[in-house]
Amino acid sequence: MTSAAKKTNPIRLAVSSLAVGIVLSAALPVTAEQAQPVSPELTPKLRDLLRKEMLSVEDASHQIMSYLIAGDDDNVEKLAQKIHDSFILQQSMTPEDKQDLMAAVPEDFVTQDRAFHALSADLVEAARKGDRPAQHQKFGEMIQACSACHTQYATDRFPKLSE
User: Among the residues of the chain, which ranges form H helices?
Assistant: First the structure.
C-alpha cells in the first residue's frame, strides 16, 4: 500500500462508518408504540437542560468529524471527553428533577443515554492511543446511537426519522 493510500484509509473509514451508522439507524423498524417523544413529558427545566446537552453534543460531534478527517487525535480526545462529561442533566438536576425525569422517560431512554456516554469514553481511549480505526468505529457507533435514540424518543423534533 502506498503512503498516500495509507493516509486516505482513515478518512474512508470515518466516512464509511458514519454512513453505515446512519443507514443502519434509518433502517431500524419503528412502530407507533415505540416512537414516543419524551420531550412533552418533561418539565420545562428538564426540557431546557436536555436541549442544551443535545446542542453541546451536536457541536462537539461536528468538530470531532473534522478532527478525525485531519488525524488530530488530541482534539478528538478533548471533544470526546467533553461529550462524556456533558451529563448536563445529571450535573444540574436537583433530587426532585431526577425524580421528575425518571417518571417522564422510559428506563430504556436512560440506558441508551448511558451507553452513548460509554461510547464517548471509548472514543477518548482510542484517541489517547492514537488508534484511528477505533476512533472512526466508535464515532460511527456514537452517531448511530444518536439516531437510534432520536428515532424512538425525539420524533416530535425529528419527524422524518419515524417515516
Answer: 3-26, 44-70, 73-84, 88-92, 95-104, 107-129, 132-153
